[in-house]
Amino acid sequence: MTYTAPLADIRFTLREVAGLGRVTNLPGYEHATEDTVDAILEEAAKFARAGIAPLNREGDRVGARLENGVVRTAPGFAAAYKEFVNAGWNSLPFDPEFGGQGMPWLLATTVQEMWQAGSLSFGLVMLLTQGAIDAIYHHGSAEQKATFLPRMISGEWTGTMNLTEPHAGSDLSQLKTRAVKNGDHYLITGQKIFITYGEHDMAENIVHLVLARTPDAEPGVRGISLFVVPKFLVKADGKLGHRNDLRCVSLEHKLGIHATPTCVMSYGDDGGATGYLIGEEGRGLSYMFTMMNNARLLVGIQGVAIAERAYQQAADFARARVQSKADGSADPKPVAIVQHPDVRRSLMTMRAKVEAMRALGYYVAAGIDSALKLPDREAAQRTQERVDLLIPIMKAWSTDLGNEIASIGLQIHGGMGFIEEAGAAQHLRDARILPIYEGTNGIQARDLVGRKLSKDGGEAMRHLIDDMWTLTDEMETCANEHIVAIRNGMMAAANVLGSATEWMANAAKADLQSALAGSMPFLKLAGAAIGGWLLAKGALAAHGKLLAGDGDLGFLEAKIITARFYMDVILPPELARLGPLKDAGHTVFALTENRF
User: Fold this and answer.
1) Please, which pLDDT band fits residue 514 given cuts at 50, 70 and 90?
2) I need a labelling partner for 393 at 20 to 30 A (CA). Which of 161, 235, 238, 530 fits?
3) Under a CB-based contact definition with an 8 Å cutoff, are residues 309 and 117 in contact?
4) Which among 53, 72, 50, 70 is positioned nearest to 62, based on CA atoms?
5) Are 42 and 36 in contact (CB under 8 A)?
């Protein structure tokens, strides 16, 4: 159950695929020098391996406990979190005005992959706090920022997202939690469920962001407002005051992430919890989406992280497990199962998909930096449109693959994988929540087609596909057989994604329900094609480095071979999601799962 951050691939993906150099040249990121970035990656890898990863197994076994109204986290969690805070890790991407280090989101996202791979249960407290900081930073008042951000950014206080309720599920229009104005604040009453780290013993205060309705609010989502509701009220001098009227009434018993306290929170049992309105009444859901988009990218990164952890464990097991002679060999001596062809294929599948997921996650994070910092605001807006397009793909595609890869990892263990002591089962159990929270993957597909694609008729996707074709042009003069094969795969991917995009954009106009019925296959096709594009980009860069004698020969060759495997083995069945139909004598296209 060990974890070692794959620093060689992380560095390569940062520089050659995500464009770290372009990001660090943006205004405000000048201090993110190459030496500084490398030092941060090295130290983050050490803490993930020695400080976080050892918590994972014991945390799963013991879990979080609710005792006399107090949530006790698993052994070692509080001490590790204190070390995390003291080292300043939480402040990495945030505004120096409030105590942040002002580093790129690209770097912060990379580090998050290491935290989440070390332990999803532990990493969730950082993920939610980061999202809460982002929401207050963008939408809070000057007083709210001054009161809450410095100690949330330092990590002394943590943050949560309080959305759904027992009767509502994903339909937030049904929320019933009430907020009644009372002087300079509101009194919040109601119950929230599935609140990650809603109560714990790792920080001195917890800042809850809560969706609620004011008495005269209109029905539906337009009547929802957002409030900051701290566990302990904050005095004018910044010191903590009395306990707010909120409590954890129970912890959920879950399939996985046992060490994460998933709370049922009750607000206002004694008259009303004190809450402070963020922004304007009725705009709570739009404000919360700032936090949710941040969280959706990082949940996608969790998919990368759990897949990497599962891959490492499966590869280690396959090298150590000796069973059966080598196929085609006259030597009857048993060999390590890593020598068996199907095991090698399985491991290569895991590796190629992990590297494609990582490339997409880092590419999106680099886009966030560019959208924030580019001086050319028109270019920044175009970049933001691409980020918005890719967020639901990153969240859904990567978390589905996280489950698939964890399952393959368990399969490589054989019967031992089904036994808890082996540890492979925990990765699969922990991964299962990822396609569900922060908006189910079906909701992500609906967002991709019903909002992002419909908003501009597919224009943002067309621009991305143009970039895919540009890469094939850059690869055209390369005679290397692997690059030629990768280019052929890229051409097929760009062509099929283009056809699918046109079909979906037109279908969304004519019959939205039919389009949405194919939205998940479309999302998966898009993720596979875009992931392939980014692997191809990395392969071309690796080929250039090989010609220049720049870098580790074995690593660079492996990058090319992995991309070739992806194009030859993984991509074709994904592209087959698009199938031809005949309609009025003309060939049109429809996603195969939508052909009832």
Assistant:
1) confident
2) 161
3) yes
4) 72
5) no
CA-based end-to-end distance of the chain: 44
Given a contact cutoff of 8 angstroms between Cβ atoms, the answer to whether 402 and 306 are in contact is: yes
DSSP-assigned beta bridge partners for residue 587:
582
Alpha-carbon torsion (51, 56, 57, 63), positive or negative: positive
- H or E element at residue 461: helix 459-475
Those residues with Cβ within 8 angstroms of residue 544's Cβ, 6 or more apart along the chain or in another chain = none
List the structure tokens of 529.
């094609």
Q: Are strands 205-213 and 185-196 parallel, antiparallel or unpaired?
A: unpaired
Please report which residue ranges of 267-376 form alpha helices under DSSP H: 284-320, 341-373
Task: Phi first, then psi: give them for residue 551, nearest 5 degrees.
Answer: 120, 180
**Cα–Cα distance for residue pair 493/292, rounded to 1 Å:** 30
Q: Please list the residues that pair with 247 across neighbouring strands.
A: 266
Distance CA 251, CA 199 (A): 9
Looking at residue 437, what DSSP letter applies?
S
Angstrom distance (rounded) from CA 430 to CA 53:
14
3-state secondary structure 198-252: CCCCCCCEEEEEEEEECCCCCCCHHHEEEEEEECEEECCCCCEEEECCEEEEEEC
If we measure between CA atoms, which residue out of 272, 306, 482, 327 comes closest to residue 406? 306
Q: What is the DSSP string of 115-180?
A: HHHH-HHHHHHHHHHHHHHHHHHHHS-HHHHHHHHHHHHHTSEEEEEE---TTTTT-GGG---EEE
Active site positions, annotated: 438
Q: pLDDT (tens digit, 9 = 90+) per residue, 450-490? A: 999 999 999 999 999 999 999 999 999 999 999 999 999 99
| Main-chain dihedrals φ then ψ at residue 212, nearest 5 degrees | -155, 170
- CA-based nearest residue to 14, from 137, 123, 108: 108
Task: Tell me how far the alpha carbon of residue 78 is from its chain's centroid.
Answer: 24
Go through 415-442 and write b for each residue having 16 or more CB atoms within 10 A of its CB, e for each that does not: eebeeeebbbbbbbbbbbbbbebbbbbb
Residues across the chain:
596
Is the pLDDT at 410 greater than 80? The verdict is yes
Residues 6+ apart with CB under 8 A from 156: 85, 203, 204, 205
266's enclosing H/E stretch is: strand 262-267
With CA atoms as reference, report the closest residue to 526 among 511, 504, 510.
Answer: 504
Question: How far is the C-alpha of 61 from the C-alpha of 64, rounded, in Å?
Answer: 10
Rounded CA separation 389/308 (Å)? 25
Q: Quick count: other Cβ atoms within 10 Å of Cβ 55? A: 22
584 Cβ neighbours under 8 A, 6+ residues apart: none
259: amino acid identity, one letter: A
Question: Which stretches of 484-596 are assigned E, i.e. beta strand?
Answer: 578-583, 586-591
How far CA 229 is from CA of 205, 277, 284, 459, 567, in Å, comes to 11, 9, 14, 40, 50
